[in-house]
Amino acid sequence: MRWLILILGIAILAGVASIVIVLRDGVAPGPRTAGTEVVSPAATPSPPQEGPPSPTASVFTDPCGTFDTTAPTPYAVTGYWLIPTSDPCTWRRQLQAIHRLGGDTVVRLGFGLSPRPVDREGRVLNRLGDGAGPVSANQGKAAEDPKPDGRYAKCEENGLTCVQAADKDLKAANPGNMITWTYVYRTDERFGPGIFRCPSIEHEIEVNGAVFYRLIAPEDGSDDPTCDFTSKGRRYHLILVSAGQKDSLTELLDLGDRFGIHVFPALPLAPRDFVKTATADPRHIGTLTTLTRRVLQDYGDRFADRASLGGVYQPFELQIRDWTDPSKFQTLLVYEEQHRIVEQVLPGKPILVSPYLDGRRQKKYTATPAQVAAGFKALARTGVGIIAPQDGRGTGKVGLYWPNLKNKPVDDRLKPVVGDTTYAAAYYGSTRDYYRAMAQARTELAQEGIDVRLWANVEAFEPTHTGDTCGRQSSRGRTDKARLDTQVALAAPYVSKIISYMWSDFFTCDSPSLSKEISDDWDRPIAIEARRVDQEAQDGQDGQDGQDGLEIRGYHVGFAKVTLSWTGVETPRVIDAAVVGRRDTVPIEGLPVGTEKVWIPVDWASVPQGVWVRVDVTTSDGRKAAEPVYYRNSV
Known about the structure:
Layout: H1 2-25, E1 37-38, E2 59-62, E3 65-68, E4 79-82, H2 88-100, E5 105-108, E6 113-116, H3 150-153, E7 156-157, E8 160-161, H4 162-173, E9 178-186, E10 203-207, E11 210-218, E12 235-243, H5 248-259, E13 262-264, H6 285-303, E14 312-314, H7 330-345, E15 351-353, H8 369-380, E16 386-387, H9 415-418, H10 423-426, H11 431-447, E17 453-454, E18 456-459, E19 461-462, E20 477-478, H12 481-491, E21 498-501, H13 503-507, H14 514-520, E22 526-532, H15 535-539, E23 549-555, E24 561-565, E25 573-576, H16 577-580, E26 582-584, E27 596-601, E28 612-618, E29 629-632
Parallel strand pairs: 1-26, 4-5, 4-21, 5-13, 9-12, 14-15, 15-16, 16-17, 18-21
Antiparallel strand pairs: 2-3, 6-9, 7-8, 10-11, 11-12, 19-20, 22-23, 23-27, 24-25, 24-28, 26-27, 28-29
């Protein structure tokens, strides 16, 4: 009997222990009170459209060393641009450093398709300028007197230049065939057989360690799949691709799989208009789409099932504004044709584009927030899946300020761009105004059945030098973490992800580097929004006392001390969210990963109507958010 009682006692103790564990580790049932916390379920996955692939291991070793795939200091910025590199170990170091800061996306800069003149000896000449059209030998010398391009001088077949060899093979198929334009495309990728549509006349050329691809495109842009070069004479465009000995994209995707990072390789960049150099030249649409189709066909053959291939990047930059007739704007025409190829060949892979904003009042052809919202809609209709506008602070084309501060002098670092003036005189709106307008445009597009994601591209540089030259960035200096935090604070409430231009070299130059500043201070709070919320609405339950309060959204705000102040208040009010607040870490739909919210009680009866309440957030160790948020007490 004593054994039976002992066993029964052990069972009762085990049951009590399990209840204690559940109540300690989970959320207790019943009404939530001040000082409590709501946490995200551990198994809740990231939204599929934003979530990166999972790292394949915590640590791995290869010829470049041992690398760690953990992310110990995750920051609000989760994506970065990368410059192509010939050193695979540089890729590895960069992706590890990006992943350590919580980065899950990299965007790779790419290369441009370039029409080129050819001399009488069949040699490809240097470009005449960005977007310059081809010049035949009988047109005389141009002012720049182009010389043979050494890169393509290496391309030879059977004693002939590659241009001569292509012309010979086409004429052997039919004497009426002729090459009317020659284009070159430089890349560090090495393609598979998917790059070819007509292997009878298209092929890879490897000579003295250099790799080239010869592609033949019908002049009409049809990329004729019949590969009929014999039945009648036709006019063709020759595309010579200078490629890498190894495929850099394979290496980058392998690293993406290792670190759980999405990779967005660049599409071929369209040639520029020779006169209107800020726009794409539609004369080359046929050849551009042919090259795009071939490259993406090869991607589809080799990488379609790779989780790390997040999509593709449209590298031709444009200013987002309200075009008078978008259907006639050259760059949008080129976009639409090139994006149609992506949809056909790589369905399900989004196109990322990052247009720039310009809100300066004293310049022509700039745009208000409303005009940018109209341009956002026109851009979305070209088939892009992600629009990540550049926030403009790095170039000084848009300012970082709140509506109640618009009459303050501009930051000293903006004066070389807009002069010694106020924000209101310099700009049509702040970055927050522009992203708010684009977020509304995105909502309206969704109602039309057009789904597009809005990201923010925060520029990690200053308009002018701030110290030593940042690597290859000769005209600008890198910024500091405080200003980057401010950029995040002003854009984050309206976007689903924040990325930055660019990792190399703005995050890596100087000592300490910007990336080191971030890793040393990664959990400093960044408040992004304050809104009035009463406790009953917050809890979603009846029977509460209906106490009014303030909901603060942002990064690392849950246990901070919140200081409220406004014009006329003698003593700012300090509220300890860790004591009387209510933290909620459940992911906020539509906002970037890592954002949370905290509710604090506020006696609004003692706050004057119409004032702007300044909300400062400070950690328990005294670190204050770089930028306060403001709430206008208009209720």
